[in-house]
Amino acid sequence: MNTSNTDPILLEIPESFESERLLIRAPLWEDGAAINEAIKESIEQLRLWMPWAQNIPTLEESTSEIRRARLKFLERKDLRLLLVLKKTGQLVGASGLHRIDWQSRKFEIGYWLRTAFEKQGYMTEAVHAITNYAIEELQANRIEIRCDSRNSRSAQLARRAGFTLEGMLRNDACDIDGSLRSTMIFSKIRGAEFS
Questions:
Q1: Is the pTM of this model over 0.90?
Q2: Burial class (CB within 10 angstroms; exposed 0-12, middle 13-18, buried 19+) of 157
Q3: pLDDT tens-digit profile of 92-108?
Q4: What's the first-to-final CA gap in the chain, in angstroms?
Q5: CA-CA distances (angstroms) from residue 73 to 34, 88, 96, 161, 172?
């Protein structure tokens, strides 16, 4: 891939790749029902950390959202990725590369996991695979993981995946209830953590 200032819409980016147990792929038009089911099942855990998960979405809302995600992927504005078990085809969660800066090749990995699949190593496996995808396919120079400073499980995942804690943005965002919260920033950079 040419790392010049090519218009991102012209980039040939693979829409799927695999890890040991997962097919990691771009959203498809018909993924609304699977996403809706996973969110409904996991809403109590998601509510703690995801501002978008305060209410259970309707099937129509999930379908609309996943189709918007598909369009953003095609436009290279946001690269949402779905995590699907290779053995069963079941959706186990979502991740992706967000807050993209194509000029500097900076990406942020975000993620959430379906409650039934927690504590089985799926998200660590996915983050490793997505990191490699960003490095190899997108020529990443910097990859970040940001999380609420109180979200110890997310911070542990970032550390397990080899990301370095750079610091904390104190009182930089409002929590769901409106109170101030802090954000931990983890990163990997070309030349230090990968080449």
A1: yes
A2: buried
A3: 999 999 999 999 999 99
A4: 15
A5: 18, 25, 10, 24, 28
